[in-house]
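INFO batch 0412 | record 1 of 1 | parsing
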Amino acid sequence: MKPLFIVRFSADFATKSPRTRSHFSSIMRKNVHAALAGAGVRARIVQKHGRLFIFASDEARTQAILGRIFGLSNFSPVLTQCRADLTEMARTAEEAFARKVEGKRYAVRARRSGQHPFRSVEVERHLGATLNPYATVNLDNPDITVHVEILGNRAYFFTDRIDGAGGLPLGSEGRALVLFSGGFDSAVAAWRMMRRGVAVDFLFCNLAGGAYERQVIQVAKVLTDLWAFGEHPRLYVLDLTGALDELRARVERRFWQIVLKRLMYRAASSVAPRLEAQAIITGEAVGQVSSQTLSNLRSIEPAADLPVLRPLIGFDKAEIISQARHIGTALLSERIVEHCGLSGGSPAVRSTASKIAAEEAEMDGSALHNALSNLRQIDLGAVTASDLQTDYLFVDDVPENAEVIDCQPPAHYKQWHLPGAVNRSPESVIHDLKSLDKRQSYVLYCPFGTQSAHVAEIMQQYGYQAYALRGGIGAIRQRNDQPEMT
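INFO prediction complete | emitting tokens
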């Protein structure tokens, strides 16, 4: 017999009407099928007695996945089963658990659903009498608990109730667009709304180039692969560098942060209707940064045409980071540099909506319009590790203001190097990573293009904006038409 799991719906189901429960359970079955199929597990799912019964081809993989499906309260791997008959249940319990409880403290817990000629307490006493010769009863602090769930005419035995993700089935509450930076806050905010049944897509407002984009895609992909079963989230990339240049030129410096957030709200309000998204999700928490004071949140809010959901509004940073560890995004998010912090000096912590609207009115809006016209879509489900390396690690030209690191041997560097390049060995760059400025972008090259790509890869993994020039020295010299230098 294939391994069997009993899956119990979250408590939210109990408060819904029969029609809504039926709709939610249908979505749950779809999501469970998608999750297991994606892991290569063949499964048959049956719904009865207010439970899902899952017959799966791989017990270990099924158990690992079920804990990450929203709408699921808990589940149990069934060890054995029999007819709902006291004598047969006692015999089955002895065969399955006599050795498991031997020499230990144990308890028996029974639950029933349906009509039976016995009560749950009678089942517990009957099975306890059968197992007493092998172990000691301890109802308060047992080493092992023998559970029997009697559903209709069958009795199912297990020892574990494993917690699920809870909440509502993903996709049961419509769709929303997440303003996504890849940091702790936006990832956790997205997860918390997904847990409430909201399917999400992501809008990434890029202020710092391809390496930053690559890091954000990695976080979004982890969130998608681990939790978005049954849905296909998309990541939309919006290059806001042009709008940022206009903002810096026309807006008073202390209001840069607030106006930038308004531009992001406007962008999300423009993109959301295309996706049939009904709300915008942000990772804002009261007082966490200057733009998230109540005064400034009130000034930013009017820029949105849709409801803005802030699931972390009352969280502190330690709580957010703890939850990021639980959902699996913390290690990636901690390497992402905050590129939205523009002001540097003394950003405004108080403002009025009218004042900020007047500041924003100094911008003509064309830069944001142009950015939206060049919006890019990324299918997170189709992204591979190879894609991320090929598309985001190499460049053909040196970006403006980038620091160039030449990884040639010193003698070769003296013969030829790009103007302004600093000669450093690959080992020294890696060894001295902590001394480098994460606000600075870096471009590396080497004789054959392999070592520099390896170093740039490591630098990106640690949150640096680093790239490798494509090709070896010959290709680089040809592209740059550089004569030999001495």
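INFO post-check: Residues 294 and 368 are 26 Å apart (CA to CA).
INFO record closed
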